[in-house]
Amino acid sequence: MAFLIEIKVPDVGNVAEIDVVDVLVKPGDEVKLEQTLAVLETDKASMDLPSSAAGKVQEVFIKPGDKVSEGTLIATVSASTEEVNVAQPQEPAQQAAEPAPVEKAIEKVPEPVAAVTPEPAAVKPEPVPETPASNVPVHAPHATPAVRLFARELGVDIQKITTGTGRKGRILKDDVKNFVKKVMTEGVAQSGSGIPAMPAIDFSQFGEIEEQKLNKIKRLTGQNLSRVWLNLPMVTYHEEADITEMEAFRNTLNAEKSKDDIKITGLIFIIKALVAALEQFPQFNASLSADGEKLILKKYLNIGIAVDTPNGLVVPVLRDVNRKGINELSAELSETSNKARLGKLMPAEMQGGCITISSLGGIGGTAFTPIVNAPEVAILGVTRAKMQPVWDGKEFVPRLMLPLDLTYDHRVIDGVEGARFMAAIKQYLGDIRRLLL
Ligand code: CAO
User: Fold this and answer.
1) What's the burial of 316, exposed, middle or buried (CB within 10 Å: 0-12/13-18/19+)?
2) Which string of DSSP letters, residue by residue, matches 107-127?
3) Looking at the structure, do residues 151 and 173 belong to the same domain, yes or no?
4) pLDDT per residue of the chain (437 residues) written in tens, 0 to 9
5) Residue that finishes a domain, picked among 64, 98, 132
6) 373 in ligand 1 pocket by Cβ < 6 Å?
7) Domain interval for residue 254
């Protein structure tokens, strides 16, 4: 029995416009299960859209440059019953957890209902939990692509236009123009956009050059970092933790593992120490409300980890870290960072972080000043641990010292709180038995 399967964009977590970067199949192509049909890109990541069926591509409905969103029809594939990747109806829990992009399968030949004929509702991907996303805009304005483009060309962050005068609050070109006028007349101290622009220089006058277009992640990361830099008064505080004993324990744990097991890196202990400090200092697990009047305290403990990928920096989020052990977190970090590097993270996997860790320890460094991943209020930077002579009151002893850098939003965190928070992290890392208390 043959089925015509509609492959649609899955639930990617409140992302309104997703760019189609590449389409890898055409009608008539034979595709395998999980074969990539198209490459999509959001402002957070690029992702491969896998086929949820094996068979022959009948029609392709998208092309590079298109904008798609959840539910957009990508292609139809005719497949035999055995080749359709849908969960059995008697396993609803698995179906809900599987974010496969299959919405429904249409029987082509009217035969008795096959066991795999899926109910549309049964294979609908699980909706993304409504956790406040720390690293995505809270409100997604309605605007057509043309208006968004117009805003981008003027350097206007469309998220800042809170009311549109179009139908149902849609933002129109005039709203963008009025916004620009307002910023120009009211002064620019708030947004920082009054800073003189950098001059455009023709570098070819000095020698040979080559122009390389920045990918979307780099462009949007750049815009976001500039926005944070201009809006947040940030302070970076530096500290060193003595991780000699922690490292000995980590080596013991790793020595007990077989060669196929995932090794535990120091970052996992840093994550645990950070979570313990967050529980102690809840103002670090918070966001400032948009009007700057309230602190929104979060009761969940999700940690964002900055991961370096060929496409740029992405920040997947490890959830409910306080409820997970060292081995579970190691496996999750390894899987998530691999996924990030392969460009397979879904936007929902990068939302809902409470605080971020940016670790350059695998590369080197002695200190740096990471930029807060707003609306989070702090970020922890880590560079390379080094054996150092430390005075113990009688003599110099060799100790493994880990440099830590905490950047915080000074509107929310006082200098003393920053120092106390770091002292707590240092204490947890210096004696990890304290994590049990
Ligand atoms: N001191 C000494 N050694 C360290 C260390 C530190 N602080 N941190 C990591 N290492 C070691 C690890 O133990 C590992 O050693 P082995 O190869 O001997 O096992 C090696 O360095 C590589 O570690 P890793 O980087 O692969 O693993 P990790 O768990 O420490 O980090 C991840 C994982 C995903 C955070 C990291 O790979 C990464 O992408 N870092 C880049 C972060 C980034 O781009 N930040 C942005 C900066 S701008 O804000």
Assistant:
1) buried
2) ESS--SPPTT---TTTTSPPP
3) yes
4) 677 888 888 777 667 788 888 899 999 999 988 788 988 877 666 677 888 888 999 999 999 889 998 889 999 998 875 555 543 333 332 332 233 333 333 333 333 222 222 223 333 333 333 333 333 333 456 777 778 888 877 778 787 787 788 877 888 888 888 887 777 665 444 444 677 888 999 999 999 999 999 998 899 999 999 999 999 999 999 999 999 999 999 999 999 999 889 999 999 999 999 999 999 999 999 999 989 999 999 999 999 999 999 989 999 999 999 999 999 999 999 999 999 999 999 999 999 999 999 999 999 999 999 999 999 999 999 999 999 999 999 999 999 999 999 999 999 999 999 999 999 999 999 999 999 98
5) 98
6) no
7) 233-436
Tell me how far the alpha carbon of residue 199 lies from the centroid of ligand 1, in angstroms: 37
Domain count, the chain: 3
Domain co-membership, 380 together with 402: yes
DSSP 328: H
- Residue 68 sits in the same domain as residue 180: no
Index of the ligand 1 atom closest to the CA of residue 370: 49
Active site residue 238: no
Domain harbouring 375, CATH code = 3.30.559.10
Cα(110)–Cα(62) distance, integer angstroms: 29
Q: Is 247 in the pocket of ligand 1 (CB under 6 A)?
A: no
User: Is 37 contained in some domain?
Assistant: yes
In whole angstroms, give the CA distance from residue 24 to residue 22. Answer: 6
Same domain? For 76 and 146 the reply is no
Q: Name the DSSP letter for residue 196.
A: P
Residue 22 β-bridge partners: 39
**Spatial distance between the Cα atoms of 421 and 279, rounded to a whole number of angstroms:** 10
| pTM tops 0.70 | no
CA 316, CA 307: separation in Å to the nearest integer?
7
Last residue of a domain, one of 69, 98, 127: 98
Q: Does an H or E element contain 5, and which?
A: strand 2-8
Answer whether residue 106 is part of any domain.
no
Residue 138: CATH number of its domain: 4.10.320.10
CA-nearest of 258, 200, 261, 191 to 226 is 191
Question: Does the Cβ of 407 fall within 6 Å of ligand 1?
Answer: no
Contacts of 38 (CB under 8 A, 6+ apart): 20, 21, 22, 23, 24, 25, 48, 49, 62, 74, 75
Question: What is the CA(47)–ligand 1 centre distance, in A?
Answer: 23
| The amino acid at 154 | L
Q: Is residue 390 part of a domain?
A: yes
